[in-house]
């Protein structure tokens, strides 16, 4: 099997690191060699956070270069644009429809792009948009947006049986929030 590459990108506080840990756990349970790298850009202050995950039979480096990612999971719309150059021509872009204003935009120093998803769709044929915030609110916990998105990613990563994801959730999450996260995962997994 050729190595596969996934980028998870978002804003500090969205649960990118937990999502990348859950993905890595599920991949290891499925028997893959996994390497992960994270970049925290002022993540405590709403800056961008990016995680690179490479998996396969044997992986030597977690770093993903331009035009190498099989999948980009963007937890925020601008992050899809910021990372688009990493995606392969036939790659999959999964975008959360949520907007989180970067500090320069919130301070009025810059403008938020008018239609980031429309811009991505001009270049990426396999673009999927998920309203994870709506689903999380329906479940009564906005913090599970990341797991909704992970569920949708899981459906698109055919290499990992669903039970490995569920085991990872159970092992990694405290018991008191496991059930709502499992519901969030399943809602994302069952999206069309």
TrEMBL record:
GO terms for molecular function: oxidoreductase activity, acting on the aldehyde or oxo group of donors. InterPro entries: IorB_Oxidoreductase, Pyrv/ketoisovalerate_OxRed_cat, Pyrv_flavodox_OxRed_cen. Residues 12-190 form the Pyruvate/ketoisovalerate oxidoreductase catalytic domain. Keywords: Oxidoreductase, Pyruvate. The keyword Transcription does not apply. The keyword Oxidoreductase applies. This is Indolepyruvate ferredoxin oxidoreductase, beta subunit. It comes from candidate division TA06 bacterium 34_109.
């Amino acid at each position: 099997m050729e190595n596969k590459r996934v980028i998870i990108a978002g804003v500090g506080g969205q649960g990118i690191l937990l999502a990348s840990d859950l993905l890595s756990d599920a991949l290891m349970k499925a028997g893959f060699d996994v390497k992960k790298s994270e970049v925290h850009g002022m993540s405590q202050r709403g800056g961008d956070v990016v995680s690179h995950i490479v998996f396969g039979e044997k992986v030597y480096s977690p770093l993903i270069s331009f035009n190498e990612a099989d999948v980009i999971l963007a937890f925020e719309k601008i992050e899809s644009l910021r990372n688009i150059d990493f995606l392969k021509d036939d790659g999959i872009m999964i975008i959360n429809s949520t907007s989180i204003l970067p500090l320069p935009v919130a301070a009025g120093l810059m403008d938020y792009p008018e239609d980031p998803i429309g811009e991505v769709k001009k270049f990426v044929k396999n673009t999927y948009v998920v309203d994870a915030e709506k689903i999380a609110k329906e479940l009564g916990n906005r913090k599970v947006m990341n797991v909704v998105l992970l569920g949708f990613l899981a459906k698109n990563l055919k290499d990992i049986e669903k039970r490995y994801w569920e085991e990872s959730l159970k092992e990694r999450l405290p018991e008191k929030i496991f059930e709502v996260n499992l519901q969030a995962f399943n809602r994302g997994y069952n999206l069309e």
